[in-house]
Amino acid sequence: MNSQLLVSLWPDLVKAFVETAQMLGISLFLSIVVGVPLGLFLFVTDRGLFWENKFLHGLGGFLVNVIRSTPFVILLVLLLPLTQQLIGSTIGPVAASVPLSVAAIVFNARLVQAALCEVDRGVIEAATAFGATPLQIIRDVLLIEAFPGLVRGVTVTAISLVGYSAMAGIVGGGGVGDLAIRYGYYRYQTGVMVITVVILIALVQVIQVAGDKVADNADKK
């Protein structure tokens, strides 16, 4: 790619990066706000725990597995009516955040459940023996003990969302993926494709390094 083309595309690159950041921000926020409680629900309703409920655990796990097993491109199309109802449009980064959020919520929920499974059951039993309520156990034991794992789960979710957001460009979601498709694919401008890939790689590296740093600091405490 020559410098003149890069300069001419710079406004589009900046706009695409901002749209990608917007999609990531919305969907990652919802994956934490909704995904963490969902993961907690799947964990505490499992066998041998204080809110054990085989039916609710099975139902929740089934719904999560259905969404997770659906390819994201298909999920984008399936959720277009819901996106239209919620946002009033199916175009743009905010609209693309709807299917991104759904995918991120169930993905992070499974990672939260896995992180909680790493907590020593003896710690939970000891807290129960001391008279701690279920909510106190969740707040003061489970979330504290599993925090490094939860951070790593959020990091993995964020990195997965980078790839998902690129696919959102297929249905007019905007972002770096949309720019790569419009210029790199339809106009055969390989240089644009290379630039977008470099941007995505850099973004993933920043997320991974930041997530690892937070998780490592939490492990030391």
Task: Give a written overview of the molecule.
By secondary structure, this protein is mostly helical. It has helices at 3-33, 35-44, 54-69, 72-78, 80-87, 93-117, 121-129, 134-145, 147-167, 175-185, 190-220. The chain has a single domain, classed as MetI-like fold (Orthogonal Bundle), CATH 1.10.3720.10. Helix 2 packs across helix 3 (54-69), helix 2 packs parallel to helix 6 (93-117) and helix 10 packs antiparallel against helix 11. The protein is elongated, with a radius of gyration of 20 Å. The model has no long low-confidence stretch (mean pLDDT 88).
Please, what is the oligomeric state?
A: single chain
Shape: elongated
* Radius of gyration based on Cα positions: 20 Å
Mean pLDDT: 88
CATH architecture term: Orthogonal Bundle
